[in-house]
Amino acid sequence: MIRLGVVVPSSNTTAEPEFRAALPDDCTVHTARMPLEDVTADELDAMADDAERAASLLSHASVDGVAYACTTGSLIHGSGFDARLESRLSDAADAPAVATARSVVRALNALDADRVAVATPYATELDRLEREYLTENGFEVVSLDGRGLVENTAIGELDAVDAEQQGRSVLSDAPEADALFVSCTNYRSLPALASLEAAFDIPVISSNAATIWDLCSRVGVQADLNIELADAE
């Protein structure tokens, strides 16, 4: 049995079910929570201070790997902060660790993506930080659309149909994109990825898809990320 640890914001209601849906039966998912109500730079910054405590609690369950499952929370201080965060969590959990923002970069690089369209649920402040982070990591952000949401519970109320519609809108405005990234581990979008890929013939990743893929690659697990949109309805 493989035990995977997931460190999530306290208001996240999406990461756990999406992780569970993509993982084989011989994997179990164990979570630890950090306080967060609103998705703002200040709250995300404060939340990161609690990351090591959460990871150390997961070490009590002898997890085989741990993920910091928050996109903007792992890019809040730009490129470099993500790597430091992974190192801190790995030490605290005594296991390999990944952070969502860095997992997204690894996934886009593995897909040979250069020009990325981005769909987010965020307000302007976090959209700006995300654009800067992706640019720092060598990607051209050809289109970015945010829904303007701040309350994380409101983000969690979005579903895969919302992600499908927003993804189509963003890609329609960016025919030059060679990948689409649907951001936020609390944005239920995993079931929309296959449909968007089929419609636009480019790779589509989400925060949870990238994090799951990255964590599973560290612990030798094969995840199933080909989940159809109908599964979420």
Terminal CA distance reads 30 Å
- Kindly report the CATH topology of the largest domain: Rossmann fold
Q: Shape, please?
A: globular
- CATH class identity of the largest domain: Alpha Beta
Q: Specify the biggest β-sheet.
A: 4 strands, parallel
Which percent bin holds the helix content? 40-55%
Number of helices: 10
- Order of strands side by side in the largest beta sheet? 2-1-3-4
Total number of domains? 2
Poorly predicted regions are 227-233
CATH architecture of the largest domain: 3-Layer(aba) Sandwich
Rg estimate, integer Å: 16 Å
What does the average pLDDT come to?
94
Care to describe what's here?
This protein is an alpha/beta fold and 233 residues long. The chain has 2 domains: 117 residues, Rossmann fold, CATH 3.40.50; 96 residues, Rossmann fold (3-Layer(aba) Sandwich). It contains 10 helices and 8 strands. Strands 2-1-3-4 form a 4-stranded parallel beta sheet, with helices on both faces. The chain has a 4-stranded parallel beta sheet with strand order 6-5-7-8, sandwiched between helices. The radius of gyration is 16 Å and the shape is globular. The C terminus is likely disordered.
Q: What is this entry, summarized?
A:
This protein is 43% helix and 18% strand.
Which keywords apply here?
single chain, about 230 residues, alpha/beta, Rossmann fold, 2 domains, 4-stranded parallel beta sheet, about 20% strand, globular, MaiA/AMDase
